[in-house]
């Protein structure tokens, strides 16, 4: 829970009364969400506006008008107080007037002006919580809706290519589209944020405050610490466990990286290398089931594929990604002659499990409920209850096995209440940015639906790619990188799938689930790809390294983000299933391809690889992506031959540490 004296990094101190109000509103929002998730489901025109109202009020309280690093002052309150009041109005207007709004043919003037106010407040909230880039994109789409002969800004149509022109729309029509129906701000993106995403963000907050993060990190160290490059491998495993829970690659970096990066540096990894490894591993947490950040919930809603099915088909690709990062980490450790940590520096697996085994129960319950067919929102509700039950049972057991007394029982209960309230507030705080991004994404969805922009964008994409699927995927990758410079991952995925999804599925014949997975994976690359690599920058700050050098290291270790989606497209059975021999074969060649790629990238497997061998591995890897069985067989044969020669050479004359360092 936020204390009276709390000052977060790069923030000006907030007055104690403001901190108290934030705490109360955050707890109230979380309790409202739990009520709607587990006790009384609400209609979309109640759930979504009320959620947005809470989020807007929190946003303007947490993010002052002139930035979090400066005191708000009188002028700041003169700006923020009306905005907070507008947030309350936005949250109550549609629920209070739902009968009138639903039964009218033409919107009332007051509804239109409240709609305009809602749009402006959402754009300003997104600027503060998400960044200026998201607001600019939202404004751009609104201007596009007004551009046209019958729109509010007809002169803008002169600046657009012919294919982009449309009739244009009035202020009344746009405001109605954005706020009086389920195709704008209160559409699918905010609906997912107000239900599935929030509940699982809250679930992650409960795990965080009860100590699950430390448990996963200690377990990873206990399992891998004695191996070469142990802390780096622990970072990979801990990030796989924590990434999907935190819901943010950056949060994962600062959480696990605070432990792993200093140990990697102590073991011999260069600072930029240590920060890059942590950033790459943390980014993988966003694609790791069972939670997969916020994207899987949106994907389920967009594709109408059950959430549990998306989770199941994502397991193997996620394992491939982490396997590739793990291999690259191992090769780097062997090349640099690193050793593992000593046993007395590491926790024991048995001890870690004995102290924290109860943290596994909520995850088991979560997976079991998903498989049983419960809705994701109800699963999240019961998962939160399971965390409370597990933590409470552990506390009672500890209390019973020590010297119980009335005072210690009261202290235990008080601590339990404090942790619960802290989690409720933390979950609400963590949901502000993603909910604001989804609200602006609703504006984009509304404009695309109103103007038919998606079909026009698809036509342009086909024209630029010349009908070539590989070139189209490269264009998607470039677009995702550009969007990622100004948008968080979830927002980049929403914008991109709205624009390019129809082209991939309808024109290039990519199955809808694979198209969404490809865009979702590509949207992650902004975390690790220069010049804007936010997870890389976070790793650099902890490692005390140069941001750009760290980002290039992260980009190198995260190459699976580019290869694995391509493999999904050209080997559909790995996602959609098929004859068992074909599925096994595709799984096998995917593993072979990533091992060969890692070896070629690092120039090392069992021993240093000469240049000619690394060059020959490249066409072998490309052949494994070719949609022809015999070319795939030839690629496997070439890779096995080269890797077999490397293994044989290591058996006949293993180089020493000096030789491996020289090769590096």
Q: What's the short version?
A:
The protein is mainly alpha-helical. It is 75% helix and 0% strand. The chain folds into 3 domains: 16-183, no CATH class; 190-402, no CATH class; 578-664, no CATH class.
Quick tags:
664 residues; mainly alpha; 3 domains; disordered N terminus
What is the distance, rounded to the nearest whole angstrom, between the alpha carbons of the first and last residues? 48 Å
* Count of beta strands: 0
Task: Describe the sheet with the most strands.
Answer: none
Q: Which runs of at least 5 residues are low in confidence (pLDDT < 50)?
A: 1-10, 654-664
Our estimate of the beta-strand percent is: under 5%
Helix/strand-derived class? mainly alpha
Describe this structure in words.
The protein is mainly α. It folds into three domains: 16-183, no CATH class; 190-402, no CATH class; 578-664, no CATH class. It has 30 helices and no strands. It has helices spanning 16-39, 44-62, 73-96, 98-103, 109-129, 132-146, 171-179, 188-209, 212-224, 230-246, 249-267, 271-284, 295-303, 307-335, 349-356, 360-372, 376-401, 406-451, 453-465, 469-484, 489-507, 512-523, 534-543, 547-557, 560-570, 573-576, 580-602, 611-624, 629-652, 657-663. Helix 1 (16-39) crosses helix 18 (406-451) and helix 14 (307-335) runs parallel beside helix 27 (580-602). It is globular, with a radius of gyration of 26 Å. The chain starts with 15 loop residues before the first helix and ends with a helix. Mean pLDDT is 80; it is low at 1-10 and 654-664.
């Amino acid at each position: 829970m936020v204390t009276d004296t709390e000052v977060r990094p790069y923030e000006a101190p907030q007055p104690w009364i403001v901190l108290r109000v934030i705490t109360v509103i955050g707890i109230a929002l979380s309790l409202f969400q739990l009520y709607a998730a587990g006790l009384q489901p609400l209609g979309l025109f109640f759930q979504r506006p009320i959620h947005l109202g809470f989020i807007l009020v929190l946003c303007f309280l947490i993010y002052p008008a002139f930035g979090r690093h400066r005191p708000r002052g009188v002028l700041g309150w003169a700006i923020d107080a009306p905005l907070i009041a507008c947030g309350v109005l936005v949250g109550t207007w549609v629920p209070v007037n739902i009968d009138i709004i639903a039964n009218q043919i033409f919107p009332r003037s007051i509804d239109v002006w409240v709609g305009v106010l809602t749009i402006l407040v959402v754009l300003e909230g997104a600027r503060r919580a998400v960044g200026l880039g998201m607001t600019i994109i939202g404004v751009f789409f609104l201007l596009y809706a007004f551009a046209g002969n019958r729109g509010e800004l007809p002169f803008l149509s002169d600046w657009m290519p012919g294919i982009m022109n449309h009739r244009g729309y009035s202020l009344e029509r746009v405001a109605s589209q954005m706020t009086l129906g389920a195709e704008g701000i209160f559409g699918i993106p905010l609906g997912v944020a107000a239900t599935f995403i929030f509940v699982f963000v809250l679930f992650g907050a409960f795990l965080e405050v009860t100590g699950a993060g430390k448990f996963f990190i200690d377990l990873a160290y206990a399992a891998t610490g004695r191996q070469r490059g142990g802390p780096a491998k622990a970072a990979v495993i801990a990030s796989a466990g924590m990434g999907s829970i935190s819901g943010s690659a950056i949060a994962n970096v600062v959480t696990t990286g605070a432990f792993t990066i200093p140990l990697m540096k102590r073991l011999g990894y260069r600072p930029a290398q240590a920060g890059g490894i942590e950033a790459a591993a943390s980014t993988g947490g966003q694609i790791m089931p069972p939670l997969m950040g916020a994207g899987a919930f949106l994907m389920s809603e967009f594709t109408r594929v059950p959430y549990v099915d998306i989770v199941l088909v994502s397991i193997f690709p996620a394992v491939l990604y982490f396997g590739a990062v793990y291999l690259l980490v191992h090769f780097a450790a062997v090349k640099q002659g690193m050793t593992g940590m000593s046993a007395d520096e590491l926790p024991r697996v048995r001890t870690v499990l004995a102290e924290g085994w109860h943290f596994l129960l909520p995850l088991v319950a979560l997976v079991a409920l998903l498989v049983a067919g419960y809705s994701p929102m109800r699963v999240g509700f019961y998962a939160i209850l399971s965390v409370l039950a597990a933590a409470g049972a552990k506390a009672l057991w500890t209390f019973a096995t020590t010297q119980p007394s009335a005072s210690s029982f009261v202290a235990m209960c008080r601590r339990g209440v404090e942790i619960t309230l802290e989690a409720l507030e933390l979950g609400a705080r963590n949901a502000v940015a993603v909910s604001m991004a989804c609200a602006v994404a609703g504006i984009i969805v509304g404009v695309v639906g109103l103007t038919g922009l998606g079909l026009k964008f698809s036509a342009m994409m086909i024209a630029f790619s010349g009908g070539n699927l590989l070139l189209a995927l490269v264009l998607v990758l470039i677009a995702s990188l550009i969007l990622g410079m100004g948008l968080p991952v979830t927002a980049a995925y929403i914008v991109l799938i709205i624009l390019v999804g129809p082209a991939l599925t309808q024109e290039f014949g990519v199955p809808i689930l694979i198209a969404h997975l490809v865009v979702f994976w590509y949207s992650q690359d902004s975390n690790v790809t220069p010049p804007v690599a936010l997870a890389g920058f976070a790793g650099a700050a902890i490692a005390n390294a140069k941001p750009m050098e760290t980002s290039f290291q992260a980009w190198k270790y995260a190459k699976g983000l580019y290869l694995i989606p391509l493999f999904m497209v050209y080997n559909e059975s790995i996602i959609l299933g098929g004859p068992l021999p074909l599925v096994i074969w595709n799984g096998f060649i995917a593993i072979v391809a990533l091992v060969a790629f890692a070896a070629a990238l690092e120039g090392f497997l069992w021993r240093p690889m000469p240049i000619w061998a690394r060059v020959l591995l490249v066409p072998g890897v490309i052949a494994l992506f070719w949609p022809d069985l015999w070319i795939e067989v030839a690629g496997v044969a070439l890779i096995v031959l080269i890797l077999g020669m490397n293994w044989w050479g290591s058996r006949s004359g293993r180089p020493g540490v000096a030789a491996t360092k020289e090769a590096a």
